[in-house]
Amino acid sequence: MESALLQACPESAIEMPFTLEGKTALVTGAGRGIGKAIAKRLYSAGARVMVNDLDERMLLESEAEYGETDRVRHICGDLTDPNMPQEIVDATLATFGAIDIVVNNAGYSWDNVIQKTTDEQFLAMMEIHLVTPFRILRAASTYIRETAKKEIAVGQRVMRKVVNITSISGTDGNPGQVGYSSGKAGVIGLTKTLAKEWGRYNVNVNAVGFGLIQTRLVQPLDGSGSGMEMHGHQIKLGVQQSLLDSVKSACPLGRLGTPEEAAGAVLFFCSPLSDYVTGEVLICGGGLHF
């Protein structure tokens, strides 16, 4: 049976290569980790990429890894500044003349159980994980809608892509992450609503929800005080080694994912392979559910 199927479907007939040549992507939180891996995947597929991060040093180091190219540029800035999303969109259009792919990846965790979570802490999680993607997509909406209307008027169907990053903390909830989980759950509502609003403009709007991926957010807590500074607060990053061990044990694949594996799931939603998929949430978590 297998031999007959292979003969009926030779390799050349089932290959599905694609290119993102001529496409422009905007990727936030792209200085390191998953965002950096996403930007590299899109670049490797042929796209021009505008990368954003709060840490310009990381952006410069990342950009240098591409070598001499005119297909990668960066813009540094705090996305929680209400003016920054519009500035990023404007810079992308000024540099590359188009926006075809938006990946809202920027984020961080500031965790605590609800009785110890301040208003500032909770709102900070909503600001970066939900309000920021909303502002970026609102800023991009004029270009996307007006460009699509012109294409449709002359009988062209040009598919554009939005990929919002969520988490299994947002789909399943997770103790100690009331703010993070709420923000990541909210972005699913944003995704599904925008999929219905922008379908008429040939835009696929989807979300990828990550499990535990090997980034600084899930590094083992070692008492070294490793973390990040945000708006005057020193935020500790990482999780207890015992939790990492239990997660690996509970995960069907028995390990954490890599940033490159995470980027692969995003690449699918950015590619022509997903042209008839919209309003969906793809979980990239090795089978793990909290």
Task: Report what the structure shows.
- Strand 7 and strand 8 form a beta hairpin.
- Residues 1-14 have low confidence and may be disordered.
- This protein has one domain: Rossmann fold (3-Layer(aba) Sandwich), CATH 3.40.50.
- It is globular, with a radius of gyration of 20 Å.
- The N and C termini lie far apart (40 Å).
- It is α/β, with parallel strands linked by helices and 290 residues long.
- Helix 3 (33-44) crosses helix 10 (259-270).
- It is built from 10 helices and 9 strands.
- It has helices at residues 2-8, 11-14, 33-44, 56-64, 84-96, 119-153, 168-172, 178-198, 241-250, 259-270, and strands at 24-27, 48-53, 72-76, 101-104, 160-167, 203-210, 227-230, 233-236, 281-284.
- The strands form 2 sheets. A 7-stranded parallel sheet has the order 3-2-1-4-5-6-9, sandwiched between helices.
